[in-house]
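Fold this sequence, please.
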Amino acid sequence: MVYMQSESDQTRRTSFRWFTVAKFIALTTLTVTVFAWFFFPPVTDTQRVSLQKNNSGELQWVGSSDQGGLNFEAHASSLQSTNNVSSIGSTIHSSPGFFAERSMMILNRSNHLLMQRGGDGLLQYLQEENPLDRIDYFPTGHSPPTGDRAPDLFVTLDLTALEETGIVDRDLDATVTLTLGSTLTTSNHSVSDSYSPPTLELFAHSAIEHASSLTGIESSSARYRLQGNDIAQEVGKVIVEKLKSLRTQHKALPLLPESFYPEWVSTPEFAFLAVHDATLLTSLRGLCYHNETLWVIQNVSDAVALLDQIHSELTSLDWKGGPGKFENGTLNMRMSSGAKVLEVFHVPRRHGRIGLTDVNDSGSSGISVYIRFRYSMSQHEQQDAYGQMLAAATPNVEQLASLRRMGSQKQRRQFISMIQNAPPQSTEAWMMLAEHYSAEQQIVELRKALKGVYVWGWCKKNNSGFDSQIRRLCKKHKLEEKSVRDVGPEQLQKLGLPLVTAESPIGEQVVREGESAMTFLIDGNDWQVLSVALHKTQQHSEDDTLFDTTIVQGNPSSSSTSQSSQSFSHPMNQSIDLKQSRASLLIKRRSIDALHVRVEMTTN
């Protein structure tokens, strides 16, 4: 018997097969989607991440962000939040005291997903704000390699309180602590000695009280994304605003040669570290020091006994210093051996957790004790580095003036002779001349030098740091301060400053990395200043570079004086008109590390 299949039967069978396939695909898609929505883990940075400025002056990733693996972030939700910030801080500096602010290291001390999100979001925020030349970020469990070069600034992040309620509408209350300082942490006592560089020592602590309500749904991979980004925005604002404030109050440290960042020297093996199971936090080299190492000893129940043991061990090694104190909850000890210093201190809890864990949060009655070892450059090493700058084919006057206390008396006299031959273009160099003429009782030259201090400090917006020195020398030699601060076109000419006038409309200068070309434009009884500075750490190409340009109009003794600034990228070998000034600017390369700057007065 032969069975015949009709065309309608074949159509039904084909349709059934396609329906089955479509159902399988839909079911598979639904399964994958459900799995991705509920079971894909969040993806965050798990290794060191670095940002560095490129030739265009923008922060770019160095290598790549370590966020490998599958990711499925999706949400249909909204966030309402409030953030309250409270801050305390301190700054200590000598005179002069420069703000080292080109690089930053961020250490995230919390392994909670909220703070991991916060760390990722902070990097994105800082990349957009572009406040520094380099940023290195270390998630929890990671620290900089031993012997690495230290950054100018350290930031720590931690989550010290967290409370969550709700399922669909989720409320979150969190306290995030932030520290920003020139060191990872600091004691209540600060000592500046002959080995210390002329830089600002700062430490600031902020607590951010975050409260938010999240309405809607989100995938497992997107958990805490909105809250983390919100916290990151607040942390980023605190950092950027603090940098702006410090830059307004203190002059930036000039770009220094590598000789002031000496080679790494290994850390001594102190016996008490092993006895008390000390945890190494960081061990780095930096500006004017071979080694700065920080340890924490946790859960110390008898701090006095610990101080006695440390004092006894170091005394046997011929270190000098007292036995230290532990009074009213404050612990401090400082001992030294030449260029080596060891500090022992306790950080109050309000300053946030610096160690890998904080025993105070676990109910223990003990405290966390920090030990800092620093091995600075010797005075002989400092003088050698200073001598190398003096011996350069084209010495950097601003660097030499900024670091003058690191030179020997003979080297300082050599520098004075150098800047007496031509009017200096640095506030610090003018101050050195003023101090020299004060010691030599050369009153006429002293008044002229103090005018130079005032004019350059005012034009470079760092005059406040020299006001007290001007007053001191005026009082010492019975000079009227008003006469020092009275500066017009005639006084500018007497100072021998680089002038551009209708009679001499062209000015030319050479500027190197970290320096600025200042040109004073005289128009009758009015004057203005054009300052063109190479970007602090810019790697210049043959075709373009980045300039910081500041134009100051008026007389510094006038209350109507205004200052404005702009930053722009500009091709070399191409003249441009500066809209804010009656001048045109032409920049050409002179050598690998120097540029030729030409300013020409233009007619209206």
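Residues 7-39 form the longest helix (33 residues). Residues 29-41, 350-364, 535-540 have pLDDT under 50 and may be disordered.
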